[in-house]
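Q&A log
Question type: sequence-to-structure
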Amino acid sequence: MYKTGLALFLAAFIWSGIHPKDYPTWIMETLPAVIGMIAVIATRNRFRLTPLAYWLILAHSIILFIGGHYTYAEVPLFDTIKSVFGLERNNYDKLGHFMQGFDPAIVSREILIRNAVFRSRNWLNFMILCFCLALSAVYEMIEWGAALFSKDGAEAFLGTQGYSWDTQSDMAFALAGAALALIALSRTHDRQLARLL
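Response status: OK
Response body:
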């Protein structure tokens, strides 16, 4: 499973880097996935994660690679969805921000459970939601900083498409992703944790 996931990661990364719309935007969009994979490889022997966590990291990385290749405002499938449903914008960035909560919710859950940080599941879930929301806020500040320093590439990187509430809706999508991950995957994750430990 680990080798298959790594091969899929590398294939998607190479594909995304072949003639992307804009190389500076591609670098900014794919860098978090590359850093994440380096962390996964570096900690694999000391702190092996569950298969669920690894697959979610891979899925999130592929979403980042697709967004980096086309830019978040111009992913073709979401352009089609936009025209079919009469939407005002390409909403691929919302999928990315949803995964920005969905994937880290399970990874942070695993780290907190395995280190016995909380006795109460209620506090555990609350802190996971807080962490995912904080992570989203930090990413929004990074986007803001990148926009200030890169006037030309700001729109491609931010993907706001003229939407004035983009930052707030991005954070709401991340929070929704985190909540859904906890609701839908906690039991599966608990079973995998039991096998792993």
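Response note: The radius of gyration is 17 Å.
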